[in-house]
Design goal:
Elements lengths: L5 E3 L5 E3 L2 E6 L3 H12 L4 E4 L8 H4 L11 H4 L5 H6 L9 H14 L6 E2 L4 E7 L4 E6 L4 E9 L21 E4 L14 E5 L3 H10 L5 E6 L6 E2 L7 H9 L1 H10 L18 H13 L4 H4 L9 H18 L3 H7 L13 E2 L2 H4 L5 E5 L5 E4 L3 E4 L3 E3 L2 E4 L8 H4 L2 E3 L6 H4 L18 E3 L10 H21 L5 E3 L1 H15 L33 H13 L5 E3 L1
Parallel strand pairs: 3-4, 3-8, 4-5, 6-19, 8-20, 9-18, 10-11, 10-18, 11-14, 12-13
Antiparallel strand pairs: 1-2, 6-7, 7-8, 15-16, 16-17, 21-22
Bound molecules: flavin-adenine dinucleotide.
């Protein structure tokens, strides 16, 4: 179809649009979406808050930031040429390498010319008259496009802890997701880390050896398992390259797009010896196998979960010399794998070092930050550096920070007050021509595999609209209710849905996020894709098209 700068308005008038589509965010989702829409001959603009591409891998420069997905299973799969060109140096690459990779992608496909950096979108408002979105940036400039695609990331809005006087500290302080671009000197410094989620674990294990003294402030211990990272030698590299088609095929077949998939056996269908040997094998293997490749029932059956939790607790006790410290590191309020599993490299051994101290803030809560450090109910600790590893306002957080208004001025934030409502995690009724990538209710898992699928699906829908001269694409209210109910039903019986975590929408540092919601699609990725494929195959007849 010919590219037209003039798009038809419903009343027959032609409305001048700046772009055919605006994408918010230049992480892996936004970059790939730009490429695919450009293939359609569309005029596309990406607005990105940061100064470079990469999203997660642009912002998270904290020491030790790296993949938990195997590097080769994480990279883009869409270009054989790119796969041939790029060698991952480690099974789980560090952030600098991933950022280099994403910059290579931007260069290779000449993406930067359509990306406007340092451009935070503050508002996006739908105009029914012209069937287009008006997008406002932080500097008040405004652009209009037929389609709006959010690629704003499930984990991209950092949250600071709600502790009094954070601004009073006179030393250096950093949030891990807003880490400076220059190296931070830890030598001889007294350092505090607040938070022991996946990011805290990576930071702590990386800096423990180079700081003068490290104090870890822990509220909730997380179950962690060994990463077993390693360099990729030339021979392995060749095997990886030759095996790409098969590996990506496998990723599309597994529950969560990882190379690991659950063992079909139940925990109690094997003997005690067999079970123990299987757990030992998984604990000694690379990556998420112990989480994603364990017995099929560990995340749904309380007794099965207790058995694997007990196994990992024993490992922690073996690895941490002081039994009191070990006990503090063993989670008591949730079972193994029911929160996002941090993978670690000698994390537990860190607590055997003389220069590392663990403070349990459920026993001695932090009262406030002082000019010199941190005051708990017990004493004041003095620091040179405070690191906030306090995570993100996950999944819906980046949507909440944009004034998003659909038809008739309805605010997305109001519509989602009691939890997100979506069709396929991509569309929302009342928000025509808006598509979401990696928003709520989509299959996430090993995320790039889901990104590529969602981008291709959104591209297919937009192509269909353009081929058929449609200027308005919207989910129906009944479609949204049905999908939202389906997503909620999928969560029933999952132990993870009974636990407070970012995956259930809880963030004690964000006002209004103290009630659990179902923000995550917890069915299988193949089932998700089958449903989306079905909608496309039937000519999108479940949508309101006009
Ligand atoms: C430390 C860390 C490690 C991770 N490791 C893994 C892993 O091993 N495996 C895995 O599958 N996933 C992992 N993830 C999840 C990761 O977020 C995804 O894999 C993937 O990078 C998401 O890409 P995205 O483009 O959807 O979002 P992001 O990479 O988050 O990009 C979103 C972009 O949108 C921009 N943006 C947001 N709001 C606005 C706005 N209003 N205006 C303008 N720009 C805006 C942001 O600046 C950001 O650049 C990890 C996440 C973190 C934080």
């Amino acid at each position: 179809m010919a590219v037209s700068r003039e798009m038809k308005a419903p009343n027959g008038a032609a409305a001048a649009l700046d772009y055919d589509a605006i994408i918010i965010g230049a992480g892996m989702s936004g970059m790939y979406q730009l490429l695919r829409l450009r293939d359609q001959g569309m005029r596309v603009r990406v607005f990105e808050a940061g100064t470079g591409v990469g999203g997660t891998w642009y912002w998270n420069r904290y020491p030790g930031a790296r993949f938990d997905s195997e590097s080769y299973s994480y990279g883009y799969s869409f270009s054989r040429e790119l796969l041939e060109e790029w060698d991952w140096s480690e099974h789980f690459a560090g952030q600098p390498e991933t950022l280099r990779y994403l910059n290579l992608v931007a260069d290779k496909f000449d993406l930067r010319r359509d990306i406007q950096f340092e451009s935070r979108v503050t508002a996006a408002i739908y105009d029914e008259e012209t069937r287009s979105w008006s997008v406002t940036l932080q500097d008040a400039s405004c652009f209009r496009a037929r389609f709006l695609i959010t690629a704003i990331g499930p984990l991209s809005t950092p949250t600071m802890p709600r502790i009094a006087d954070v601004d009073q500290f006179k030393g250096q302080s950093f949030h891990t997701a807003r880490w400076p671009h220059e190296p931070v000197d830890f030598a001889g410094k007294r350092v505090a880390v607040i938070g022991t989620g996946a990011t805290g674990v990576q930071t702590i294990q990386t800096i423990a050896g180079s700081v003068g003294h490290l104090t870890v402030f822990q509220r909730t211990p997380n179950w962690c398992a060994p990463l077993h990272n390693g360099k990729i030698d030339a021979e392995t590299q060749k095997k990886i390259r030759d095996g790409y088609p098969e590996m990506f095929k496998r990723c599309l077949e597994t529950f969560a797009c990882f190379i690991h998939s659950p063992d079909p056996r139940g925990t109690f269908e094997v003997s005690d010896e067999e079970r123990e040997a299987f757990f030992e094998k998984l604990y000694a293997e690379r990556g998420f196998g112990i989480w994603q490749g364990n017995f099929r029932d560990i995340l749904i059956d309380r007794k099965a979960n207790a058995v694997i939790s007990d196994f990992v607790a024993r490992k922690i006790r073996q690895r941490v010399k002081d039994p009191k410290v070990a006990d503090k590191l063993i989670p008591k309020n949730h079972g193994f794998g029911t929160r996002r599993l941090p993978l670690e490299t000698f994390y537990y051994e860190v607590y055997n070092r003389d220069n590392v101290e663990l403070v349990d803030i459920t026993e001695t809560p932090i009262e406030r930050i002082t000019p010199k450090g941190i005051k708990t109910s017990d004493r004041e600790y003095e620091f040179d550096i405070i690191i906030y590893a306090t995570g993100f306002d996950a999944i819906t957080g980046s949507f909440d920070r944009i004034d998003l208004r659909g038809a008739g001025g309805a605010r997305l934030k109001d519509k989602w007050k009691r939890g997100p409502q979506t069709f396929l995690g991509v569309l929302v009724d009342g928000f025509p021509n808006m598509m979401m990538l990696m928003g709520p209710h989509t299959a996430l898992g090993n995320i790039p595999r889901s990104i590529e699928y969602n981008v291709d699906w959104v591209t297919g829908l937009i192509r269909y609209a353009r081929d058929n001269d449609l200027t308005r694409v919207e989910a129906t209210a009944s479609g949204v209710t049905a999908w939202t109910d389906h997503v909620k039903a999928l969560g029933v019986g999952l132990l993870s849905n009974e636990v407070n975590s970012w995956m259930t929408g809880i963030n004690s540092n964000v006002e209004g996020k103290q009630t659990r919601i179902v923000a995550r699609y917890s069915g299988s990725a193949p089932a998700y894709r089958a449903r989306c494929d079905e909608v496309a195959a039937k000519g999108y007849d479940e949508l309101a098209l006009g």
